[in-house]
Amino acid sequence: MKTSAEQRLDPPTTSAVGTIERPRKGRWIDDWRPEDEQFWSAGGAKVARRNLFFSIATEHVGFSVWSLWSVMVLFLGPQYGVDPAGKFLLTATPTLVGAVLRLPYTFAVAKFGGRNFTIFSALLLLLPCIFIAIVLEPGVSYTTLLVAAAVAGVGGGNFASSMTNINAFYPERLKGWALGLNAGGGNLGVAVVQLVGLLVLATAGAAHPKVMVAVYIPIIVIVAVGSALTMDNLSVASNAKGAMRRVARDGHTWIIALLYIGTFGSFIGFGFAFGQVLQVQFKGTFSTPVKAAYLTFLGPLLGSLIRPYGGKLADRFGGAKVSFYNFIAMGLATALVFVAALQTSLPLYLVGFILLFIFSGLGNGSVYKMIPAIFSGKARVRIAAGADAVPERAEAQRLSGALIGVAGAIGALGGVLVNLAFRQSFLSTGSANTAYVAFIAFYAVCVAATWVAYLKPNPARGWSV
Q: N or C: which end of the chain has fewer CB within 10 A?
């Protein structure tokens, strides 16, 4: 016998979460009340966990495809005629495309349903893999390589739709951990694709880059089928009309976007660029792609695994407080990398970069926990003033989903800026030192913004994150 959380109701239904305007066939859940503890324990938690599993799986593969070119550039030997600056542009291109796609992907969940769009977005990942299988040969034009890299950007959009979907499934008290698990599992795709690349380089060799996509094509099909068989659509996971316009007019949107540039922009930017930076900065040590690949996966791996704990710490201590101290730590880690680069100390350099990945992962979790906390805090103030609790909470949910998309898109653009900063630094000075100074300055801005906006005492605000 199904619990109330597992019922799929065909006729129009009015529930505690609102009115379903029309009947819809398929795996739709019309009655979803995660904040109701009885509802949650009677079956809601089980349904949410089931959807979270394949949400993580599809987002993971999406990240792997999105960051595929961070590995593919290691296969581009002299026969391809691409210099280091050209390779940095190839890794920046999918980052840019993925960032732009995150906005429409956010609202696709409301339009088509979380399960339905997860299936579609997973199958869409076949396009960049097939493209590479067809065109990647020595002598291929650089323009064609840029197009292939751009198509891989579809993997970057998955994050926004996945996070928006899971945000609707979980109660406020568990969002930090759930969103952290979802995003961390996705981020892990950056490390895994680099491990796959290492395996291919060590076995098939640098002359066989197409083996990479041969590995991922069947995996994409598996996660798409798994999503179709196990996931659900939530009728309540819909964005209010004008939600994007509303969050765009909210000053907190742009503060959160700035902070997410600092955390996720760092994570994805360093993840895409780390292998190339090692090869250029320490040419004698990393003379071949295989030697660089042995180390490039470690930072993204640790940063991904620790992201859920950033959300968990934020659940306990508050997202703003965790983010504040985390940005200080990121600045110190970058300073360590800068000193190591000046001294040409590879061990110190690696320690500094690994710390950067770890702190960026923690910060990803803590900043994303701040998003639902901002709108739920505002809703509590209005409810205390006499507003109706049900529509206020529903509106907070919808605005949170919209901001997840905006912050995710702008944060991903930070990855483009990181790659362009490295590219320009190497073109201008022959080293990455100028880029490190710019990163330290940016983290200092994030520290100041977090303090002024969220930690500085402000009794008039009436809520905290």
A: N
**Does residue 295 register a pLDDT over 80?**
no
Instruction: Report the helix count and the strand count for the chain, using DSSP H and E.
Output: 19, 4
CA distance 2 to 218: 33
Phi, psi of 47, deg, nearest 5: -65, -45
pLDDT in tens, 438-458: 999 999 999 999 999 999 988
Mean pLDDT for the chain overall: 87
Please report whether residue 313 resides in a domain.
Answer: yes
Six-digit token string for 143: 């323009």
Nearest 5 degrees, angle CA 97-CA 307-CA 90?
A: 25
The domain that contains 223 carries what CATH number?
1.20.1250.20
Pairing of strands 14-15, 18-19: antiparallel
pTM of the model: 0.79
**Number of domains the chain is built from:** 1
The pLDDT confidence band at residue 24, using thresholds 50, 70 and 90, is: low
Largest CA distance in the chain: 70
Q: CA 362 to CA 360: how far, in whole Å? A: 5
For residue 394, give its domain range: 42-455
Q: Assess if residue 436 is contained within a domain.
A: yes
Examine residue 16 and state whether it is found in any structural domain, yes or no: no
Q: Does residue 28 form part of some domain? A: no
Q: How many Cβ atoms from other residues are within 10 Å of residue 200's Cβ?
A: 23
Pair 175, 372: CB distance under 8 Å: yes
Q: What is the DSSP string of 373-409?
A: HHHHHHHHHHHHTT--HHHHHHHHHHHHHHHHHHHHH
Q: What CA–CA distance (Å, rounded) separates 74 from 279? A: 10
Is 419:95 a contact under the CB 8 Å cutoff? yes
| End-to-end Cα, the chain, rounded Å | 40
The distance of Cα 333 from the centroid of its chain, to the nearest Å, equals 22
